[in-house]
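Budget justification, computational time. The allocation requested in the original proposal was used primarily to generate structure tokens for proteins on the priority list. As evidence of use, we reproduce two of the resulting records. The first is shown immediately below.
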Amino acid sequence: MPGINDYINRLRNGLFSNRKQLSGVAFIDLEVTLDGKRVHDFGAMKEPENEFHSPSKQDFIQFVADAEFLCGHNIIQHDLKYLSDFEEITRKKAIDTLFLSPLLFPKRPYHKLLKDDKLQTEEVNNPLNDCLKARDLFYDEVNAFRALPQELQCIYYGLLHQEKKFSAFFDYLQFHSIDEILEPLILKVFQGKICVHSPINMLVSEHRIELAYALALISTGDNYSVTPPWLLHQFPEIENILKLLCSTPCHDQHCGHCEDKLNIYNGLKDVFGFDEFRTYDGEPLQEKSVQAAVNGESLLAIFPTGGGKSLTFQLPAILTGRAVHGLTVVISPLQSLMKDQVDNLAEQGITEAVTINGLLDPVSRANAFDRVADGSATLLYIAPEMLRSKTIEKLLLSRNVVRFVIDEAHCFSSWGQDFRVDYLYIGDFIRNLQEKKKLTSPIPVSCFTATAKQKVITDIRDYFKRKLDVDLELFASSSARKNLQYSVLYAETEEEKYNTLRNLLMGNPCPTIVYVSRTRKTRELAQKLTSDGIDALPFNGKMESNEKIANQNDFIANRVQVMVATSAFGMGVDKKDVGMVIHYDISDSLENYVQEAGRAGRDPKTAAKCYVLYSDHDLDKHFILLNQTKVSISEIQQVWSAIKSFTKQRKHISCSALEIARQAGWNDEVPDIETRVRTAIAALEEAGYVSRGNNVPHVFATGIMVKNMDEAHKHINNSKLFIDDKEKQNAVRIIKSLISSKSRATAIDDDAESRVDYLADRLGLSKGEVISTISLMRQEGILADSKDMSAYIEHSENRTKQVFEQFAKLELFILNTLADMELNFSFKEINEKASEAKIASSIKRIKTLLYYLSVKSYIRKKENVYSGMVSAVLCQESEKTIQRCQRRHDICRFIIDRLYASAIANPQSAEQSGSLVQFSVITLLKELEAYQNSVLFQSQEKYHIEEIEDALLYLSKIGALRLEGGFLVIYNAMEVHRLKEMKYRYKLEDYRMLDEFYRQKRQQIHIVGEYANMMVRDYNAALQYVQDYFQMDYKKFISKYFKGERLEEIERNITPEKYRKLFGTLSEKQRSIIDDKQSKYIVVAAGPGSGKTRVLVHKLASLLLLEDVKHEQLLMLTFSRAAATEFKQRLIELIGNAASFVEIKTFHAFSFDLLGRIGNLEESEDVVRRAAEMIEHGEAEQGRINKAVLVIDEAQDMDKDEYVLVRALMNNNEEMRVIAVGDDDQNIYEFRGSDSRYMQAFIDEMQAVKYEMTENYRSRQQIVSFANCFAQGIRHRMKTSPCIAVSKDPGMVQITQYESEHLEIPLVNNVLATYSNERACVLTNKNEEAARIVGLLTKQGIRAKLIQSNEGFRFSNLAEVRYFLKHVNQNQDSPIISDEQWMQAKQETLLNYETSTCLDYVKVFFEDFEKTNRTKYRSDLMEFAFESNLEDFCGEDHQTVFVSTIHKAKGREFDTVYMLLDGERADNDEQIRKLYVGMTRAKQRLFIHCNTNVFSNIKTEGVEYRQDTNLYPLPEEITIPLTHKDVYLDYFKGKKEQILKLRSGQPLCFDDGYLRLPSGGKVACISNKIREELQGWAEKGYFVKSAKINFIVAWKGKEDVEETAVLLPELMLIKSMN
């Protein structure tokens, strides 16, 4: 080249002349205040040994006055701006060692005095010391420049001598050159190191500084040296220049650089040792993708299993990393797969890859960070959630990121088989990273997935176009695997499946993978195969890492034939000789099935077989699993409500996922609870409701108080706070890191290197260790005490103190209750005891305290979620535990006082309803120590920082204050900012994306099931089906293969067969209610016999199976225990044992649960009101009241309190659906406050959708017509249409009107004449009438049974029931009653009370509980017994005439009904409704006996009307059952043992107001009221003939301590013949 040689000759003649003497240079450094507003210290030095250190600016100016050059580190952008007012300073030439260092020390290990942009020093706040460091660095920079080749000196001069940051350096050296011919000189000097077609002239013209730095890095010849982070930040174009020079293939074979560094074929051989790329049935998919990546294009590759995906991004990453010192970031969802890939590369001698994930120990994690930071890693594997880490962001900002690789890219699409909301943040992260790096062109992206249909491909490409304006080039194969033979074998039973599997394995002895759907099944099946002589090992994602690796290696090495695995096995495992893949359970999508089956026959020359052992029941497992793992819209709404609750006063919070889950009312035992919360938050973020910040702990190591490391060492070694050498070593490492980075960061600076997570990651310590060490160094005075915590406190100090004192009292009560022994108790039980002790208690509070006490190791506890039972024991002896607790309480009181004092002193901290007080834990400790000898504190024992932290945690947990920042949020903490106002609700349209994903998941299960069935019918058609699935437009695929009814079926979360079985027999009207999934509020006005119970049971099944409502999100409230049991029993029969976990309660039982009280008669009157108040005041346990759906049975029977409770639940759950079912025509409990207008209010006030069920499946035509006509007299009816009899049978209605006052005898005569052993019932208005009828029927030889109530006592108070409960609860070592315990207690009860007439009730009690409780929890049994009534257990006997009042017969039905209506009228709605209920109990025949003209105006065709003018007497025998009110209760006191020896049904003698045994002993005394009543009967000629024991019950007076056994007799009166 002409000119170049001349240039070289000039160089030889010397370019350095008249160099200035060093005395012309002054080295300077300034120390400024933390706020950056002024200089508080000056340092300077001149040679020889002339030093200056003073706070005087004038003296400083005078000291440097004679210097021509000012030199220092970062003085151009920092120090000199504070001296700009002094002209004598601005005239001087500035030499900045900061900008020279990357140019002259670009190669690792760089310069010993440098760390990134900072001087390495062991002293802080000493400007003179920094001057000395700058001087030494400058010497070395001068020498380094002199040592450069002369051509490179000329290049640097030509590029930089006119730039302000460098001109003084060349002036100082008196270096001169020419720059007209830079391009050829650069190409000559960097021949083979850069592309010959690089745009040098353009770069020289536009980016001189950046080009110089890029060339400096290239000149190192070291692939692992990197551009310092600070330089990338200031000159972001360096990255693009490196790409233009070194990583833009020109494909010119004469270009030495591109042929050597960027030739993919040479790279394949050099890096991996392969001679050629892998093809897929002749398609060079791998080669094309690699070339596109090396060319810098963004791409989407659809790589089949075994298609060499990993190499496709690893090779470009390594080539580009070596060419431009760049970093490729691989984002993958599987941590184990990341590690496997890094290990596999290491085994091949490729060490450029690292992974940073949660499985790494702190040391390995720190090593990975160091390798990325220092450039020795060119491949970084991370999970998408890691992008939330501020440290990861800082790390990536420090490197030249050349590409992002996204594995499993189908996770972007809601149409993909594994959509993950974490992936949706990737685009935002990359965009933010590009903005912070100030990049002018986007970072390329490579997306990979093994299988993807067209819609998924479109979604992925649209996502990156929308987020990053990047077009992804598609690389996909259209060919199919030719070496795989597919087969589906039907196997209906488990035994049939296993035998088929075993036969296949024995007949094909080759390496085989057997896929199952559940982790537990991997071990069970592997063990069974091994016992049958087939070597098999399990593999699942929940196994220990060592076991997984060992099993995997054994399979790869052919030491075992079979691997029984979940889908987690096979990813990244390259075993080419797998001859068979057997799906013991079919996959949940075609994508997953093709991917898993594709792990067979990876060697194209090997023929392999793929079997599916299929039953339609397999799909049910996938539907159930989908429902369990789905994050429903109601759950997201609950998380949104929780966030709104947390952010009422302030729009941002910092808290853990677990805290949000608890506030949302989720149970801690929910699987993957934190993942579910994060998914919900991501969905809220995507919809614009919240923004989630980085996972940043708000603890900082700031304000270094020692001058240098020597002083720090001395403090640490002499300190008594550090208990061992490890703590001291940690302290030394942390303070050294802080001093060396010369950090002056504050908590406002998120990028501070003093942040805890950064220190932990870089030093290989846990966050807990860093926090602890920083705290100790603050106490020791090595670090300044910082107010890095804040507490939000309410304005009312009194309320805060009241909350604390209530909790403190309850906590001491709990600890005293535990004493020194392990206890098993229910939450209700301990809450009951606390309430009795006059302590403000609730289950919510008890759970909060037990959680804290367990976390802080006061107690060890085990909790059973479903039973509400807890097992707990103190960790220390009782006295020490209580002392520790009381000491903490004292500290809490002190903290509350100090925080409120601080709030008063700083009124600017006040907000709308509270104050945000900033404080320091260390300061609190010191203030506490200062007051240790005051009246408040009697203990002289020294306080520790941990005690302050424990007290703060305690106050936070009990809600006395809310903490932000500090040590309490370092573990899995999230920053969440609420963007939308409180009034906004998360709606269905917001849920669209997730809803679409779950819809696709449902359809995919149906689609893979269709494939299995098609494979049996037509092999080739099934293969075409799969090909169409992946290549056709999805909607066209669906329309081709799923037509008509099938199109509806694939929308359901259930197989067609199961749907027909469950819902196929419903009527059109019933089906419309079941299918209504959109209406928020539904009211069903259901006429008698319309199948209300059936519809409700099927609606519950639909909610669980079709509408994705989880059992814990569903609540059903009823008005009787019998109804609750019937619903539970029928639901179990319909859908199986999953129904056992659905909460179906009476209003009273639910209310007692909320109050945490055991049901009792005394409190039952106002328990519902109190429960509603508890919800309204925010005191109820969230997990009990946060529901997605509320179902109300017999809604017309709600009274005011019950309606208020429902409204409280609705207010607590903004999006809760309510389904209220009832019949206002059957509201017959107005006397106790029931009112159907509360049911009507759902329609009037909440615009509920109303359905009318008027088809009567119970009664025959005449009965329905007569009832319709009679009910027309009711005003304001909800149903607008009359009921219609489904049966065509006319049935029979007969009405007999009497003139007689007494109707018992003619009614019994009617029964005798018409009864034919069908199920029949006599209905009366009064209990006395019913008793008389029973007596008459029995006397006539007809088996009669009184449906009687237990007026005045609970069923659980029956002596027989008490006996059973006592024996079944004898050994309460478990919350569950074993079958052996149950049977033993049952047999003892039946034997002991074999003569009791109440035994039939008890037997039905046993049967009913057993039917609905496969697992028998003690708490469930106690509630079942307490909620039950006698009439619940009357049984279903045929050939028995039941006798009941109309009220007790509600909800029942009989073939024949006889109604005795003595003096009955129908003057008002209440009377009409009562009679309407009675007549609609009849199915076939209705006989009405009345002595008024109540029905005279009712004329219905077919009804038979009769007149009877006979006068009938009262029956000769009258039965009078006595209640508590009819006997003297105090009479039984002291006779408990005697009474309990008696049995119901045992005869008694009546003797002048006393009841005695036949042997003579008195056992009861009747009341004066009954004496008067008997006198009245005597006047009519009736006298007591005999008596018997009706019931023996437990009773306790209000003032009594112990219970008394009470005998309730029955008197038989007979009419005297005189």
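The second record produced under the same allocation is shown here.
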Amino acid sequence: MHRQHILAVTISLLLILPGCASSTESEVEMPVEPDCASDPNADGCFENVITEEDCSSKQVFTGYLCRTMMRPEMLDFGESEVTLEIGVEIQQMTPSFLGDAPSSWAVNPPLPDGIVLDPDSGVISGTPTQESSRKSYTIIASNAMGVSSFRLQIIVMPPEIISIELQAEELYCTKGETCHLETPSFLGGTPDKWACDPPLPMGMALGADGSVSGKPSHIGDSNHTITASNSAGGVSSTLRIVTIHPSPESIDYGSPHFTFSLGQPISISPSTSGGEITSWQITPNLTAGLSLSDSGVISGSPDVLQEATGYTITAENSGGITQSTIYIEVIDLPVWELEYEQVTFHLSIGDEIGSVTPSWGGGTPTIWLATPSLPPGFSLSQENGVISGVATELQEISHHTIWANNSAGGDSAQVSFHIINLPPQAVTWPDDEYALASNESISIHPQYSGPSIDTWEVEPILPSGLSISDSGIISGTPNQSTGWSEYRLWANNTGGSSSSSIWIAVHDIAADQEYLLRGMGQTSWGGWPSPVLPIGEWSFPVAFAEGGYTSEIPVISASHAGKGRILGYGHESWVYGSGGVEETAFSLRAVEWACGANAVVGLAYGAGFDGFQDDLESQGHSVHTSVSPDNLSGLDCLLDEFWNGHDDDDNQNIVSFLLGGGGVIMGGHAWYWSYSNTDLAHNYPANKIANETGLFVSSAWGYNEVDMSQVPHELSRPRAAIEAIRDDRIEGHTLSDEDATIADSTLSLCTNVVSLDFHEFWAPLREVVNQTGWTVIEYGTLWEDVGYDLGEDPVADTLLRVETALTQGLPADQLPSHPSHHEFPGEVPSNASRIVRTVSVDGNQSGLPSNFGYSSARAHVRMTTGTYAAPGEVVSVTIPPRLVDSGAYILVGAHSDNLWGKDQLHRHPEIVRWWYVDDTDMEVGNAFGGPIYVAIEPGSTLGIFEVTISNAVDAPTYNHGETDVEDWIQMHRHAPAPWAEIGSDQFILSVPSHEIRDLEDPDDLMDWWDQALEMEHELYGFLPWPRVERAVFDAQISAGWMHSGYPFMAHDLSAPDVVSLAHMSTEGDWGMFHELGHNHQWMPSTLPGTTETGCNFASIYLMEDLVGITGHGAVSPDQRESRTRAYFDNGANISDWSVWVALETFLMIKEEWSWGEITSALSVYYDLPAAEVPSTDEEKFNAWVLHMSNSTGSNLAPYHAAWGFPLDQNTFDALSHLPVWTGDPLRGDFYEYPAILRYLQSPSISEANSVNISWETYDNGTNITLTAFYGTTDGGTQPSAWSNNIEIGETQVGNEFFEISGLSCCGTEYHARIRAANDAGDEWFGPISWVTDYLDD
């Protein structure tokens, strides 16, 4: 274009220039004007006229001259690609070009049929007649000087199909017979392809013309979408196909009348014609004993007599019915050969004869008769003639005739009875021992079936309030506590006596508590205790302390167990009082309560209680030391530890000693034990005997200040609380709000630690849940005020805890399908298939180092299986032997946040279930359902292994780089489970399945997330990152909008955005990046106050560098400036340095250098020797400044000191080799920096009247003025103390010199200092000193 312009200008200039040129006008010779009229041939009279014929083939005539022809260039038709429709005339396409017009036009290959290129004008026009796929056509325009071409892509599409109309919307067919539907009619374009979804019934086919035909082979009723399409698109219509049977024609039983004998087996079968019969009916119902089978067979043994009765049999299928009528008569047989297995009975009063059964032949008796009537107490069954009963009255021998009759006849047999009297037989009782509650009514019934008893006696006298009735029932209300006593009871009649014995004790728990706490007040014990939960029937709390995580926990509890007593302390040192006077007094009283006065006390070997011997002996007890459980004979009392090394035999010896009446005092905490052990309920030594002792030691902890001034509330005893809750919900005895709260608080300490095999504790609670039903919690999002309000109904709260214990503790085959799963996490469709899947699992999982403190670094690593457990269903898992007891689990459920700390619940508080891998074949499940994972313990090197999962549901699962996208679109995303996982080798998202049903681009989405995770890993510098991070989206989480950890948790409101590439790539998600940032925070490099700061490195970095936006209003320039201003205006106090303010400290560094320097500083910490890892706050501040400075190559100590970092001199000294960052944004705007001068010096002997002093300005500070103070004495840092001063002025970084003149000569000693001053204060440097030289002679 540019060259053409120059050419045109040049030609124009040539046209307007004269034929020759001279230097001046005066030098031009003017021609003589010829006389052309007289001499036409004279020079100058001939005019040369140029015509078009004078031009060559490569020239163009302009009207007055021939110029060189220009070749056509920049040929263009306005569009590079057009889509045409068959039969629709195209809008003409006219070419444009530069240069001279083409003389010819050509196209290669030929244009689609019906489209032409005008060879003269180059215009493309026409009406396409045939479909053509996308093709490129080169159009060539040429003239004599050259050619120009243009590439045009053309697609010719058929007309779009507008609609199709089936010949019928419903097609009715008969199984096995030809069925046909003609080709549908349609509007618009012609279909070239027909499809049906779902496929047509078996035997039917869709023709190439859209017709439907065939012979259906199965009965059914189905809907099908018929789609007609061509390359322009497709349209659909719905067809219903109903297939029925051929109609049945006839049935025949061979005879219309049948006579059967009562009780005799019969069978009659029909013959049929016509279509297959699918159901049989008979009216009226057949007589008892006969039945009609699914194939129409009448069979059985008639049990009832009947006259000839008509029955109509109906045979039916989907095509119609047919009927037949028959008549049935049932006749009887007479009774013969009646006999009894025993006919003579010699009995005593009370003897029972059992059931004496007759036998007979012939028909069944309908009437039984005894003549005369049988003796009192005996009866003859009118149903089967059985003689039974008990002898109740004395009598001599009697004879009786028994008749058995029916309508056809009867027979008889003889029996006789003789009844005599006997003395009382042995009396038994339901139990041998009865522990009774004081002031509660009771009734104890003897178990006796012998001769009548006239009187009862008991010795010694029963406890006060109890008595024995004439029938031997012990009843009443005991009104005072008693120890165990054996009571002998006699049952008497005229024939003699019988004796028995039972043990009875009356317990008064309130009196026990009052005795133990009498005179006690506030106490302080040694060691932090664990709760001692009094879960037994006769267990009770004695004293409470503040819990580590709860308001109060029972730290001293006691129990009546068998005939003995036990008292337990939450810490082993409390057994002997921990050395305190009041505490020791209580411990001595506890021994007396459990063991009695002047007891023989054994101190367990190795328990450390020997120092208690003197105190015990001072109270009159005898003491044996180094006692072991295998030799407790002769002892009244054993003092031992809860946390002991006893084996099963030792435990059994202790239990036998206790139940037999011994006293036991034990103490010990379990919270420290639980740090390195599992299964508290079964492995902690004390809990191995808790079923017998009634005392269960929890792994929680509490404080050692114990208020013993008040007797605990009645409902602080778990058994009393359970009974109160049962009465409230089942018996209708409503608890007050206060009492309900106490009961709930009591049981909340127990339900999460006491395992379900403590049946006596759990049985009544499970009964209440079974009778009241399971709790359904309404699903709601974060902002909705729906769900379940904890604390509103404390009794309901308790039952909710019971439900949790059951869903968390029951074996898989006992788990219910909890009804609340319908609300969350969701339902498995009723038609979802159950699958068997074998998955490959990588068992080499290192996890993260524990210093990633917010990441759940040592959490088990969840390995996706792509399967889902339906609620309450048993899933079988087969595992390689090397996984057994490797620390691995099968986890069922993704939503692992515990919600008990919330005020309102939007789902059940615990809905995942961990199953420890202890066998190669396991049964697992979850009452709420959930995704199934193999959870690998960090540090495992189990290699690659396979796990087979049976009876699970397929879950939508996309594994980036493994799952084919087309398979995802067509199959995987439609899997029926309600939760899906989209993941890669960097990141996994667990989201509701409905959020990904329409996800078309999982590969692009995970490419984006992979980039985000890689950027986070690189930012924090710990590479390679050894764990695939997870995000789980939940109806409700334990804290915040999102929170870090493994997995990091977010509300499901965020799920639609995180699976939308369009959203994430343009809007990002500050919170997601923030929480992932938390997972990357290394504790030693996380400065005090920056828990919520260091994670925002990731948010800013990804929002800016990945998404391309700021992402948070808090990092706008105005907000940043405002915060920084306020912080420094308030004195830059490091206690105020956190979150956004702290972030500003890092951002200023990042903006001066880059994120790379921050990454470099963070990376140093990962390999620090243990001795160099900072632990205190001050160590952390100083270490960070050192590493950050080394990373940037600048001394950042002054900068961080300005922010208030508590830096010590060692840090300043360690960085003195680096240049100070003197360009930081704080200087002069937010903070006045002091100057730092160093290497201040002077010659030891100066000039006679002057001296040159020198120094290095290491940091020139802000608005600094230097002043030199000097004199013959050192005035220190007091300006008035100096005799002379001189202002040096401003200073710059680097070496500087200054001359002080006017000095006294000749050996005068001078001293000097330099003051660097600004509005913030003064800094003094020096002193230096010198002596003046002598004057020259």
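A brief technical remark on that second record: The radius of gyration is 52 Å.
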